[in-house]
Amino acid sequence: MAEFMTETEQRCPAVPHHGTAGERRGRTTGTGAGRLDGQADGQEAAVLLERTRAVVDPELRAALESLPAPMRRIALYHFGWQHADGTSANGRTGKAIRPALVLAAAAALGGPAARTAAVRAAVAVELVHNFTLLHDDVMDRDTSRRHRPTAWTVFGDADAILAGDALQALALRLLAEDPHPAARPAAARLADCVVELCAGQHTDTDMERRGPDEVTLDEVLAMAEAKTGALLGCACALGALYAGAGPDDVAALDGFGRQAGLAFQLIDDVIGIWGDPRHTGKPAGADLAARKKSLPVVAALSSGTEAAAELAELYGKPYVAGDVEGIALTARAVERAGGRDWAQAEAADRMARAVQELSRAVPVPEAAGGLLALAEFVTRRSS
Amino acid sequence: MAEFMTETEQRCPAVPHHGTAGERRGRTTGTGAGRLDGQADGQEAAVLLERTRAVVDPELRAALESLPAPMRRIALYHFGWQHADGTSANGRTGKAIRPALVLAAAAALGGPAARTAAVRAAVAVELVHNFTLLHDDVMDRDTSRRHRPTAWTVFGDADAILAGDALQALALRLLAEDPHPAARPAAARLADCVVELCAGQHTDTDMERRGPDEVTLDEVLAMAEAKTGALLGCACALGALYAGAGPDDVAALDGFGRQAGLAFQLIDDVIGIWGDPRHTGKPAGADLAARKKSLPVVAALSSGTEAAAELAELYGKPYVAGDVEGIALTARAVERAGGRDWAQAEAADRMARAVQELSRAVPVPEAAGGLLALAEFVTRRSS
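Above: the input entities. Below: the structure tokens describing the complete assembly.
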């Protein structure tokens, strides 16, 4: 699953103005239209993320330290607290956006006390996220994560799988040990989310095996929602549960996180094609070279245009290493077929839906501010 | 992890008389000395297992049916309810010994009401067991399980890993959704057990990479306890929790299951060397051909005898396919070095310890009967 902002941060302007998109669809509410205009959100999000790490990291670290030695070593490496040789590292690899969403949702619906109560849930969500990263990297044979070699390349497949299994168990143990009345529904919801994440990853690996004309846009959107949206939604829902929110508000917070997650994925896919390699750390058009059925590509293929037919032909042939011209040609075909415009408009629309969902549960703009700043942050690509 | 009685059932007499072993160590209590003498236990265990399946299977099946389609298909195949092509099968692949232990422990400490209350926990334990089987088969590249091709050989590594992940989540979701007051400590204990199972599997794969002289008997025993004993102990402990037992009784039940699990593993390892291939479904001495560092082998290697040196030399060379004479020679070396005798005596000792642990919590023989019958069943090799 994609990692927020660790490789793609601050690299190219890609998100259209959310307020505008929302207005276009007639969905904008009073909640946060004004909030999404400026760059102040970036600073607010940075402060929130920093505050989150300050309370979550010690609990997270303590949970990892409770693992038996071999599992602990792999986990500490994966989280960036140790180098491959077991020596200390600074652990500043992830941005902790999911725990930040848990805490921001708790604060939005229940104030500072709920935020404090939800720290364990925030740690649990971060553990689940990282369990899926460990396993996905094994399945996808990804060799790099957060600018470091993936755990399986260092410790082997078996240990990476086992460390992932242990992190899932740790996450659900934390909630089982939490006496807060929200802990039980939170655990059920988080476990349910894991099942959805698994189904999403299955669809992703399955789609990569199929031909480009055998995948529909609805399927890719559903996959992105399961793989990326589900855990962001779950993070927000858990925060709401710890604030004592009722089922409607919990569902609204889940919807907010899901839609923001989809917006993120759309923008991430745009960057996977048109991102600047100096910032992405990957060669230009890496997703196209891998013939990845990303959202802009499938949208382009489904457009019924002449460019779609060209793109289908290009995608039907394997990438020849070093074919920079072929990649440029492919990127232009996606753009001419409307894939880029669609993805950007869809991202804006998803953000508008996110804002609308949030306003159902949190009508006061001041209370919604933190969540909006985080949503803006994960889809923002300029600074 | 080893599967009770599905491949090794009813094949050769291997367990010494537990009562005798207990008396030898002066540990036998009044609890069940008489119970372990006869063959009646086999029938009692068979009845218990049948009754367990009758209440556990519908809940287990319902839990699996709740999975998204692709995960469901892999899970139903793994559990034997579907063939690889998705058509129905009878599902009679496992013996459900772990859920039977949960229910028997609940009944022993809390009577029929506790047994009924513990069904969900029994399902959760079976789900965890099967999640570890799915993952272990991927890691160990095992191609056969319960006389059928393993899930990864049918669906690929990624789907087998994902299905395992989903089963772990399902197990902990069941407990999170269970309003019984024991559900929360049971979930914490089960999650803790998963971490121990992961550490055990890590040690197992790690030891297989090391030389035969680099592994100590204590290490192999600790590994067997983590890999096999821990979940049997956890099953019994969960039953005790659902019976409302206090910490001492829960710990005693955990100890009972752990010791019985170790006894099982010792006997299973004996059969891996001297078992009749007509019953085991594997070629004679398969574990020796694989140079497996099983308990009798490591005991033999640690014996300081002349035969130990011979065995070390034999184990130092790779197995040449078809070398029946070499395998027979190796088996004789293990036997001459005392590996077989040690394993059988140790199994008897572990059973005696199991009985002693049980008597701490369940002093009344009638109440302990079910658990003793199951423990006898898993280590019994004649009928």
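Note for the figure: The interface with chain B takes residues 67-68, 70-71, 131-132, 135, 138-139, 157-159, 161-166, 168-170, 172-173, 175-177, 183-185, 187-188, 191-192, 194-196, 198-199, 201-203, 205-206 of chain A (CB under 8 Å).
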